[in-house]
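Weekly structure sync, notes
Attendees: PL (lead), two postdocs, one rotation student
Agenda item 3: pending single-chain targets
PL asked that the sequence for the first pending target be pasted directly into the notes so everyone works from the same version. It is reproduced below exactly as submitted, 165 residues in total.
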Amino acid sequence: MPNRHAIRPIHPDDDAAMAAVIRTVMPEFGATGSGFAIADPEVDWMSRAYAEPRHAYFVLERDGRVLGGAGVAPLAGGDAGTCELRKMYFLPEARGSGAGAAMMTRCLEAARSAGFTHCYLETLTGMDAAMRLYERSGFRRIDRPMGATGHGGCNRFYLLDLASP
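Predicted structure, written out during the meeting:
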């Protein structure tokens, strides 16, 4: 069936495609250079970066093509109970299809399974559809960043209590 998407764990064969997604989507929102995830070294080897304990990264695939992804990992510089929703990006053709909500569900399930009690995320002004998804998913806006992500370019911060429905 065309247009059917699948969400699955990232494989090493997906690394180049996912790096291309990130490098395509982030400039669309002005998120280039240091202070943004686009500059993180792991962009080129996501499958290896998320193979660590309590890490998970998933890709959205349609008709054999990677159209986006998202993951969770312990929040750098945070407490052991807090994870970060990381690198959630989709190409324009995947947006508005419900894939974001499905990906969010998959990531939060992985976070709960890994024993996290809270999920943090950071984003930036202009990523309005993403912020609506975060809020629909139960995230609440907080005033300041948490942890030490190195993403000083981000200016919107959210936290979710994973024990809440």
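Discussion points:
- The beta strands are 5-9, 56-62, 65-74, 82-90, 118-123, 140-142, 156-161.
- The chain has a mean pLDDT of 89.
Action: rotation student to compare against the earlier draft before next sync.
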